[in-house]
Design a protein that fits this description.
Length: 558
RNA sequence: GCGAGCGUAGUGUAGUGGUUAUCACCGGGCGUUGCCAACGCCUGAACCCGGGUUCGAGUCCCGGCGCUCGCACCA
């Protein structure tokens, strides 16, 4: 274990020195839970994001969106984050003592912890509980204080409370109507979003593993719960993976078997587990150090009905880096309830349903003036009657009063209703990726320590797909035209779309190879005297140190 | 948030209250007909911040900030 810790320290030192990951605001003494991606790390992060985006877009029914990080209070109240992540505070205006509102009201309610902000506010106003530090309490309005960074949208009294988003998901849910329309009202479809999330951690630890501002990438995939999806599991058919179920029992089986046996409760969850494994492999994560762990029922988030964490093993042990959750209809339903707007999809019946209606309703022209304010209630009651009821009938209202409904107040309803389909709330399967945690493990798994000439030698064997620099251009010496030729090649590479080149003319050639290896450059190109004569250059590969000579005008990546 | 330990160049470190803060790698420049951290010369770079004790503080004391670990918390 001590060896592991020392390796971790050497890796972190190298990442700082090479401008990959650095503590943020170091100039001012640092800030816990915040990291900078440096001149090399910045590119690494955006490459990783791009690979992730391309991976999901390749499914064909996914779109990328981008929503604000600043989110109005009501949105996160509806989603459950305010309740799940908040303590409600109030301040005594007489003595400045801050108290938790639910604690103050413990004597006046059986479970104040479960009350919403407005319920707490009205109870606080009604009870006006004693202040623990002064005799004349004067409680301020109740405010939410929780793990979300709170802010104010707008200034002064017109300001509106809000939060920095704790996940990107809510933006996808609030965009559901636009997504539904974009996809021509046909499920299934998904939306992805890559961006920052915020969480005011009490105690950030373990470097990139627990941050206060972090990069996340989420897919919200909307499905019809009545349709059994038919996913193709064949590409993983020969691959048994490590699955730990909700009781902590470990299984080794194929994804298809796990989905068919019911261990994975929904095939789409299983399919995304496979796609997630593919993604991790494509960015250089060691597949033998990946496992899937199912949440126990008491561990599940407030919105989820099944959840699998993808855990990656590295310097900090097994760390959850991806969560694949079946969120059911929780979120869309919550936003429907909060706004009164429809967030539903339509499902056509294979055969229209014919319904015969034979009953009663009120005759508005007579019943309205007769019953006035009670007419609505009378209508509901009358419409529940069978066709063979005989009027007059005495009905009982909700407040206990009785009214006589006569034949003149009602009329017979006889019609045939044809229903061709129905509206339902789609279910959501959500793979949520902690990009920083994945990026950390990409670095951890790529970090290779060897010896060269008796000296320790370090390199990052990064996958080409995420390597921050594609090619380093090295003039053997910066003279005799070698520097000019190298700069020409460097310029050509830099102006080639998608290609990132690094020019390095400082120090010995061996030192420059070593520095390139430390930031994971897959290919170095050396310009020497012969290059000036015949425009051939040496291609040196990071992983095996092999060198081949070819014309600089025929480089495969240009 | 509580407790313990720690904080010195880009990195890793030495430093018993006393002159100009040690060493190595590192970074930069020049040279080197030369391809895997080579060599020579020159050069750059640090005591986390703020108070206090003291003639004098990197060193001792207090507070803050940060880091590591344990507990607590954790979608």
């Amino acid at each position: 274990m001590a060896n592991d810790d020392e390796r971790l320290e050497r890796l972190q030192g190298m990442l700082r020195q090479r401008g990959i990951l650095l503590p943020a605001f170091d100039l001012y003494g640092g800030a816990k839970g915040f990291y900078d991606f440096g001149p090399v790390g910045g590119r690494l992060r955006s490459r990783l994001n791009q690979v992730w985006i391309d991976h999901w877009l390749s499914l064909g029914n996914i779109v990328e969106i981008s929503c604000p990080t600043v989110t109005p209070y009501e949105v996160l109240e509806a989603s459950g984050h305010v309740g799940e992540f908040s303590d409600f505070m109030t301040v005594c205006g007489q003595c400045d003592e801050a108290s938790r509102a639910d604690t103050l009201l413990e004597a006046h309610h059986p479970n104040p912890d479960a009350l919403s902000q407005s319920e707490l506010q009205s109870l606080l106003t009604k009870v006006n509980p004693d202040c623990p530090s002064c005799p004349t309490p004067e409680w301020s309005p109740v405010v939410a204080q929780n793990l979300m960074f709170s802010t104010t949208i707008g200034a002064g009294s017109s300001g509106r409370p809000g939060f920095m988003r704790p996940e990107t998901a809510q933006g996808m849910f609030t965009s559901f109507p636009a997504l539904y329309r974009h996809f021509r009202e046909r499920l299934p479809f998904g939306a992805i979003q890559v961006g920052k999330g915020y969480r005011n951690e009490i105690s950030p630890r373990q470097g990139m593993i627990r941050l206060r501002e972090f990069n996340m990438a989420e897919l919200e995939y909307f499905i019809d719960p009545n349709e059994r999806p038919n996913h193709d599991f064949s590409s993983w058919s020969s691959h048994e993976i490590c699955l730990i179920d909700g009781d902590g029992v470990s299984h080794s089986m194929t994804l298809q078997h796990a989905a068919e046996s019911g261990l994975i409760r929904h095939p789409t969850v299983g399919f995304f587990m496979g796609k997630t494994f593919d993604f991790l492999s494509s960015v250089g994560i060691d597949g033998t150090r990946v496992r899937f762990r199912q949440h126990a029922s008491d561990e599940m988030a407030h919105y989820a009905s099944d959840c699998w964490d993808v855990e990656i093993h590295g310097s900090y042990g097994w760390i959850e880096c991806v969560g694949i959750a079946h969120r059911g209809c929780y979120d869309l339903e919550a936003h429907e309830t909060a706004t009164g707007k429809s967030l539903r999809a339509r499902r056509e019946f294979s055969e229209p349903k014919i319904r015969e209606i034979d009953g009663w309703t009120i005759d508005g022209g007579v019943a309205g003036p007769a019953f006035r304010a009670d007419a609505g209630q009378v209508k509901t009651i009358v419409e529940s009657f069978d066709a063979d009821v005989e009027f007059p009938v005495e009905v009982t209202l909700s407040d206990g009063r009785n009214l006589a409904v006569a034949a003149e107040h009602v009329k017979r309803v006889q019609k045939t209703v044809k229903e061709t389909g129905e509206w339902f709330i789609p279910h959501v399967v959500e793979p949520a990726f902690g990009i920083d945690r994945i990026l950390w493990h990409v670095l951890d798994h790529a970090f290779e320590e060897t010896e060269k000439g008796g000296e320790p030698y370090r390199m990052l064997k990064l996958a080409d797909s995420v390597a921050p620099i594609d090619v380093a251009i090295l003039p053997l010496f910066e003279k005799d035209g070698m520097d000019d030729l190298a700069l020409e090649l460097h310029q050509l590479c830099c102006s080639t779309s998608g290609l990132v080149s690094l020019y390095d003319g400082s120090g010995s050639i061996g030192k420059r190879y070593a520095r390139s290896d430390e930031i994971g450059v897959p290919i170095c190109i050396t310009v020497d005297h012969q290059s000036v004569e015949d425009r051939t250059v040496t291609i040196r590969k990071r992983d095996d140190g092999s060198q081949t000579r070819m014309s600089m005008d025929q480089l495969p990546f240009l």
